[in-house]
Every structure is written in C-alpha cells, then in structure tokens.
Amino acid sequence: MVDSSARINALVVDAEDPERLAAFWSELLGRPVVGRGGPYVWLRRDNDLALGFQRTDAPTPGKDRMHIDITSPDPAAEGRRVEALGGHRLDGYADGGFLVMADPEGNEFCIIPEGPFEIDDEGRTDYLG
Fold it and tell me: Are 18 and 41 in contact (CB under 8 A)?
C-alpha cells in the first residue's frame, strides 16, 4: 500500500432544495447548519468530515452510485424517526436484510446497527430480525 496524504474532506449531496435536505439531515444527525454560500448549505463538521448540500437543477436519474450509512443502537426505531422527518423506506431491499431509506429527495442511505453484524457471502444480513 502506498502512503497518501489524501483524505475525504466532505460528502456533498446534489439537491433540488438544499435548505430542505440540510434541515432533514441536520435533525437526523444532530448536526446544525453552519454555513451557506452560493449553491451550498453545510452542516457542522463531525469526526473530521463535512456534509454539504449543493443546489442542482435536475434530480439524479436512476439508482444512487454512492450512499451514506448511518449507525443507530436501534435501526428499526431510527427508521421510524426518518419517516417522521419526511424520509421513507425504499422497497426492494428486504431480501438483503438492510434497512434502506431515502431522504425527502430520494437520496438513498442505510441505517445499520452500532457494532459488528454478520454479512453472508452474498452480501445479505439479518440485523432487523
């Protein structure tokens, strides 16, 4: 492995309404909005990682190529909280055992348990029981 000074600085999510998505993610993660500039809205940096939302004129077509995983001591309860905040559970992922959610604009993310959990050779899990 080659040593590198490169590090991931921020995750930036394209958004039709960055204020709305920033409010959703701010409430979900407990990270206040700390900056606005041009087409960007930024949440407080945490664990050396920034999360921002960039205004775009068009939604991303098709499935997201990258998504965020968040942890929770109770993924099912966190899923219900996501729905109360305006997100929703995505269909079609139950066979894999992951709790796959979407924010109000449809950006996918998973809620996974804190600590280790088993994943089989096919990439499936059963942490939801």
Answer: yes
In angstroms, the CA 34 to CA 67 distance is 23
Give phi and psi for 25, each to the nearest 5: -70, -35
Give residue-wise pLDDT tens across range 58-70. Answer: 776 777 778 899 9
Asked if 18 and 39 count as a contact pair (C-beta separation under 8 A), the reply is yes
CB-CB neighbours of 34 under 10 Å: 13
| Domain boundary pick from 16, 35, 56 | 56
In a domain, 99, yes or no: yes
One-letter amino acid for residue 10 of the chain: A
What distance in Å separates the CA atoms of residue 2 and residue 12, rounded to the nearest whole number? Answer: 26
Query: Under 8 Å CB-to-CB from 71, ≥6 apart: which residues?
Result: 111, 112, 113, 114
96's tokens: 């894999």
- Note the pLDDT tens digit of each residue in 23-35: 999 999 999 999 9
pTM of the shown model:
0.85
